[in-house]
Amino acid sequence: MIAHVRRAASALIIGVSLIALGVSGVDARPSDPMRDAGPRASDPAPFPGDPTGLSAPVPQPDRVDPASLYFPQVSCSPRALPGVDKLGARLIKTYGVGSIGAGRSCSTGTSEHKEGRALDWTVNVDNAAQRRAAGDFLGWLTANSGVKARRLGVMYVIYNSRIWSAYRLSEGWRSYTGYSAHTDHIHISLSWAGARGNTSFWTGKVGAVDYGRCSTFTGQPATLRRSPRPVPCAPTTAAVKRSSYATSYYGATGTAVERAQRRLEIGATGSFGGATWSAVKDYQKSHDLPRTGALDGPTWSSLVPSSLSYDAVEGFTARKAARYGFNHYADRVLTKHEAGKAVLVLQTALDAPRSKRSGYYGAATIAAVKRFRSDNALSPGGTTDRSVWKTLALP
Ligand SMILES: [Zn+2]
User: Fold this and answer.
1) Do the first three CATH levels of 242-311 and 318-393 match, i.e. the same topology?
2) How far is the CA of 121 from the centre of ligand 1 (A)?
């Protein structure tokens, strides 16, 4: 028994180190559940009549969490979220077979693996013991209209050419014709609530829908928000700056990555790994850029100004920006997390360093406004109202 546990533990460590290194999991091929519209199918493995399943760490409430909606990947983060790690650990601890892989490079295709919301459990359908474990888990998970899947926040699972989706509950198991047949592992994608470990299986309380991460600027990756979002994303803001450089993500390689690394003053390896991911996030934070962890349009515009292909306030001097702002934006209050042309006009009027004129109202802009208010004997604070614009626009 001890040897058994030890084997499971080392398998888990392998899985975790894969995540830490950002190496692709066991299946590096993208899986797109939406591509599949297959008909009802038989179970992916024999389900026992009374599956054991996973035991919950806390007493379970009578009510059940809402079935997960479909939340496609919107961001890039090589780190598995806590609910993913916990589910992986529990699968290994319960069944003692297979290993877990979760993180994945973001450079191609769409997959929840790329934002820490999916895991692969290596249980091969051709191995009797592993197939039994898979059948027990999947039978338990999907029984009674997926009560346990709802408690865990499972969005969909794929195994042995079958897919089961919480957002298509009434259809049960369907045939899956995606790129990989998934005969050597179960793929599990979680909702945001499930991935964060905020569902009743873990907490004993029914979780609210968590809409997850949202983009700030149109066409850009989502910000790596940590806290749950109880409402859907607000509409995105039109880009205020564009770069001729393509967005580069964790896992990418090449000369553009190398150029960014030089500007970030980190080792110029040309390979976008964990160190670059951290440096990009730090740079974004200090330059009022949405914290996406990607070398996206706004970030390239700031890092490599010569790559700028569009600027919403092109030709604006600080003076012109101040007058333009007073004429157009004095009737509203600009505050933290706002984004758009008004913010870019403000940053220009404040004569912020060019690399910090992002169009996003973050910590650097708040600090600059606080300073401006203090220097000009205005009421204290970090928000921009008529008094700020008026003082800026004074001849
Ligand atoms: Zn997978």
Assistant:
1) yes
2) 8
Query: Identity (one letter) of the amino acid at 254?
Result: G
Q: What is the pLDDT of residues 153-185, one digit of tens each?
A: 999 999 999 999 999 999 999 999 888 899 999
Residue-range domain boundaries for the chain: 2-203, 242-311, 318-393
Q: What is the pTM of this model?
A: 0.85
In this structure, whether the domain defined by 242-311 belongs to CATH 1.10.101.10 is answered with yes
Query: For residue 330, which of 347, 346, 315 has the smallest C-alpha distance?
Result: 346
Give me the mean pLDDT over the 92-114 stretch.
89
Q: How far is the CA of 84 from the centre of ligand 1 (A)?
A: 12
Taking the centre of ligand 1 as the mean of its atom positions, its distance from the CA of residue 64, in whole angstroms, is: 26
DSSP string, 280-316: HHHHHHHTT----SSB-HHHHHHH-GGGEEEETTTT-
Contact predicate 279/268, CB 8 Å: no
The per-residue pLDDT for range 288-304, each reduced to its tens digit, is: 999 999 999 999 999 99
Query: 100: CA distance to ligand 1 center in Å?
Result: 10
Percent of the chain with pLDDT over 90: 84
Query: In Å, how far are 36, 87, 134, 175 from 183, measured between CA atoms?
Result: 17, 20, 11, 13
Q: What is the pLDDT of residue 20?
A: 31
SS3 at position 95: helix
Angle at 210 between CA 229 and CA 295, to 5 degrees: 65
